[in-house]
Amino acid sequence: MMVNIERSNVLGVILAGGKSSRMGTDKAQLSFAGNSMLTHTKQLLSQANVQNIVVSGKDYQCPDIIENAGPLGGIHSVIKAYRPSAILVLPIDMPLMQPKLLEQLINTGQLTQQAVHFQQYEFPLYMPINAFSEQFFNQAFSQFSGKGPSIKSLLAAIPSKQLSVKHHQAFINTNTPEHWQKALHLQAQNSKESYVS
């Protein structure tokens, strides 16, 4: 039985700052399983027992301090604004993600005090905010030159752990209409089969 570690100190961060240019419409407002993707993503975090949630993006609670700095620009802005002790980052465009996978990240991260993500995938990402992460963000954004640092460079600079993946479809990223249709098709299949990862 998995121990349900206290998660009130984990801030859920929804990344909704992308321009959705390849999708052609605002991904946050797309309808999935009867809700907007924004509501659906909030529900995924809530079902993983993450109660404190902030949306990162120009039109939401936490706009980027530095524009066009990519996902880490959004994460940097949230850390500066909210000073969390740990964050769980989930992009707005992963409709098939499962709460138990998010719980797995949190449990592992809180036990090891390391950043945790799944093999082959940078997101979702659990990250404790500590001296390692603060040093990375301070250095990366003190000399910002127009292009934000990569998630890969972050994970190389801080203690991190990778978890193995059993079902890759949970990690489908819906950047284009084709990806979106694939996710809708899989969701319809899954609701019939009630697949378990």
What does it look like?
The protein is α/β, with parallel strands linked by helices. The protein has one domain: Spore Coat Polysaccharide Biosynthesis Protein SpsA, Chain A, CATH 3.90.550. The protein has 6 helices and 8 strands; from the N terminus they run E-E-E-H-E-H-E-H-E-E-H-H-E-H. The strands form 3 sheets. A 4-stranded mixed beta sheet has the order 4-1-5-7. Strand 2 and strand 3 form a beta hairpin. The longest helix has 17 residues. The two termini are 17 Å apart. The N terminus is likely disordered. It holds the Pfam family NTP_transf_3. Keywords: Cytoplasm, GTP-binding, Magnesium, Metal-binding, Molybdenum cofactor biosynthesis, Nucleotide-binding, Transferase. InterPro entries: MobA-like_NTP_Trfase, Molybde_CF_guanTrfase, Nucleotide-diphossugar_trans.
Question: Beta-strand level of the residues, as a percent range?
Answer: 15-25%
The end-to-end distance, rounded to whole angstroms, is: 17 Å
Per CATH, the superfamily is Spore Coat Polysaccharide Biosynthesis Protein SpsA, Chain A
Number of helices: 6
How many structural domains does the protein architecture include?
1
Share of helix among residues? 25-40%
Structural class from helices and strands? alpha/beta
What's the count of strands?
A: 8
The biggest sheet, with number of strands, parallel, antiparallel or mixed sense and barrel status, is: 4 strands, mixed
Secondary-structure element string = EEEHEHEHEEHHEH
| Low-pLDDT regions | 1-5
Radius of gyration: 16 Å
- CATH class, anyone? Alpha Beta
Shape: globular
Oligomer: single chain
The CATH architecture is: Alpha-Beta Complex
Mean pLDDT figure:
89
